[in-house]
Amino acid sequence: MPEPSTHIENFKYRLPESSIARYPLADRSASKLLLYEKGDISQDRFSTLPEHLPSGAWLVFNNTRVIQARLNFKKETGARIEIFCLEPINPADYELSFQAETTATWLCLVGNAKKWKSGPVSLHTTINGAALKLQAYLIERSGEGFKVEFRWQQSGVTFGEIIEQSGSTPIPPYLNRKAEESDRERYQTIYSLNNGSVAAPTAGLHFTGEMMQQLEQEKIPLAHVTLHVGAGTFVPVKEKNARDHSMHSELVVVTRSFLEQWLKRSDGLIAVGTTSTRSLESLYWLGIKIKEQAPAAPSTLSILQWDNENLPQEIPLSESIEALLEYCEQHELEYLHFSTQLMIVPGYRFRTISGLLTNFHMPGSTLLLLIAAWIGEDWKKVYDYALGEGFRFLSYGDSSLLIP
Question: What residue segments make up the domains of the chain, in order of their start?
Fold first, then answer.
């Protein structure tokens, strides 16, 4: 059998501007739902999702919460500097960084960086009715971004409170508009919990409280993992061969109780979104890596871009989960933290999911490569159908349930 092509031109399609959803629908669950099962395609409303789930299915959601990551500062000269917070450096732990009360250092993108050579820039805001001055200092360049130290003097005010009240929503660049107040609510899943993402796990944007209750009433099990979605999710594949693309790294957090639930019920798992899929597949390979290489400290846990190709291929999922649970017990962990750089491309063999609920993705993106890996060449048929039937694309668009 010839190797599946990863030539990026094979994963591009014409996406008309008119097909991009620039705003969400008023009713989250009123969006269209494309149904793909064993090659057959049909459509319905998202509100009917429970009717279309296979018998024995259970859903895994990514409960990350989008932070108000864009902060607008000014220099004394009046020049505007936009700072886009990507991930914490000191403290490196997300939760600790959001709890910091005087200083926090983050990896950031900086708009208008040419005008910020030295000295602090300032943002004047009001937190809990009191005036606050936030200053930012440029430490050094780091890859495509900068290390930026934030300082403020008001006691009892956390960095999390500052960005939540003073920042703006980091809506995707392809929406070609500024964030509006309504995006604070709509670019957030209703079950979001753990602060850390700069992009929403968009498959979850369609769920309402009523649907979650309906799923529970119908005894469809629900579970959560956390993957903090980074800005790298929007980085296009520029290389001719997708395998030459440098995949971004993201933080995954799961509870020991989730692993226990997963071990008892590994079949019928429907991943809500590509980020949940990436988390689950990365967990499988992490279990294999722990089983084979026995990493010493929890802080060293990671999955690199092509680790999956260099590890044993035939170990059952149950053995991987057992290895993860044994590691948690050995290190007295209730939460398992690790970074993943896993890149899923055509030819990849999935180990964890039976179905995928996802939106429609950008041409030539790593997300579309994952879809092509999941349903093969039928991704073209699915996308042609969606475009022909007037489906809305990208973050605020419609969704699909894909069951090969």
Answer: 8-65+185-403, 69-167
Residue 125 to residue 142: CA distance in whole angstroms: 28
Q: How confident is the model at residue 200 (pLDDT cuts 50, 70, 90)?
A: very high
Cis peptide before 54 (omega within 30 of 0): no
Q: Are 7 and 379 in contact (CB under 8 A)?
A: no
Return the bridge partners of 37, or none: 40, 403
Has this prediction a pTM greater than 0.90?
A: yes
Mean pLDDT (the chain, rounded): 95
- pLDDT at residue 144 in the model: 82
Fold held by 8-65+185-403? QueA-like (3.40.1780)
Contact 66, 231 (CB under 8 A): no
Mean pLDDT of 282-306: 93
Q: Cα–Cα distance between 255 and 296 in angstroms, integer?
A: 20
